Amino acid sequence: MTSLPDTIEQLTGQRPDQVSSLSGGCVGEVYKLSMPDGHDLVAKVGKPHSGLDVEGRMLTYLAKHSALPVPQVHLASELLLVMDVLPSGDDLGPQAQIHAADLVAELHALTTSNGFGFAFDTVIGGLAQPNPWHVNWLTFFRDHRLLYMGQEAVRAGRLPASMMLRLDRFAAKLDRWLDEPDQPSLIHGDMWTGNVLSERGRITGFIDPALYFANCEIELAFSTLFNTFGPAFFDRYQEHRPLKPGFFEERVDIYNLYPLLVHVRLFGGSYVQSVDRILKRFGF
């Protein structure tokens, strides 16, 4: 089997001076490759069906179709993803959040006539994320986000079947709280703190996308789940794209059911209680 340094040498014509482990690998090992010319790389090494080829395809799509800063992809296969290193290291302070709001609002302005979904199925946290086109957002969100991921979590033995029945009943009533958006928006899809890089008050890159065209509110809700963005971000974002009333009061919790179900499928534990709390809040 070809070693990682050998593969990088074949790809770039240079052999890494040093290979260092990095944290943050959800679907495999992540390494920083210190290159002789100073143009350092990141390599993600995965297992079969880890979705690294899809991750590379999504980053390439963003680089081609949006102004969102993303790492350049040099190699994307099922087992190996090689990208540029992006500068990072700072917390997401107010200035960085304002810059992020400008970038995310511009991303959300990208739309399509095909409806909700994407040109190919994507991944989130290494899990398959189906994206068949739908003209109706509520149908897409119900069937291919809430019910799909709930069923995956049940199959993995991490979501009780009784809670899945409650989720099913809730999903059938989404139109009580949710409306169809004016248009689909391209979303990054996995916008938590670890996937947003910044330095000196500026965003340097977004990594690990989970792309599809959606109601942009699902992205904004997810950004609150792990305190990625706060008032500085939302005040600036709404200068570009005002939010309809009720987002923070109700719809945040509804849309965060999806990333919570992803976490239930991956980890179980306290995330099940979070799903339970939201279902109870809405009477299920």
Describe the protein's architecture and organization.
The chain has 284 residues and is an alpha+beta fold. It folds into two domains: 4-84, Phosphorylase Kinase, domain 1, CATH 3.30.200; 94-281, Alpha-Beta Complex (Aminoglycoside 3'-phosphotransferase, Chain: A, domain 2), CATH 3.90.1200. It has nine helices and eleven strands. It has helices at residues 4-12, 52-65, 94-108, 137-155, 161-171, 217-225, 231-240, 247-267, 270-281, and strands at residues 18-22, 28-34, 41-46, 73-76, 80-84, 122-124, 127-129, 185-187, 196-199, 202-206, 212-214. The strands form four sheets. Strands 1-2-3-5-4 form a five-stranded antiparallel sheet, with helices on both faces. The protein is globular. The mean pLDDT is 95.
Q: Multimeric state of these chains?
A: single chain
What is the total domain count? 2
Q: Can you tell me the CATH architecture of the largest domain? A: Alpha-Beta Complex
**Structural class of the secondary structure composition?**
alpha+beta
Termini distance?
A: 53 Å
**CATH homologous superfamily designation of the largest domain:** Aminoglycoside phosphotransferase (APH), C-terminal lobe
Helix content: 40-55%
Query: What string, H for helix and E for strand, traces the elements in order?
Result: HEEEHEEHEEHHEEEEHHHH
What percent strand? 15-25%
